[in-house]
Amino acid sequence: MNGTRWLDEGEQAHWRAYLRGTRLLERALVDDLAPHKVQMTEYELLSMLSESPGQHTRMSHLADDIVQSRSRVTHTAARLEKRGWVERCRSSEDGRGVEIALTDAGRAALEEMAGVHVESVRQNLVDLLTPEQFEALGQAMATIRDHLAPEHHEIGLDD
Fold it and tell me: Per DSSP, what are the bridge partners of residue 102?
């Protein structure tokens, strides 16, 4: 059959477990954030923004970091801006790009949600695995990340 390297039975089982597991994990994380009336993409944007130098960055850089289209990040930022959690302005560097900054209200909202989110990550992923399994998962995902987006290589996961 045209040279296709089909998955064997074991590979197929692992692939399907990965697909179902990641979808169920995402659903659990979303459900745990639901009482805060925030979407996972909104939480991720706030979280990444909080870790940026000065808690602000160019919208284009943020889109790359959270692996979202610039259009989607713009829509997400608009929703967060209406809540008073972020502010957008022209880049102070060149005046052409748009920067996004975390506001005090956004920082407070993120602090309130962060504990819930981290507990959900622990309960639904980290604490289910042995430390060795979790490390192997991180290393495997770093390999995939580096293959698909080598410009976003992060230090520390490849040791």
Answer: 86
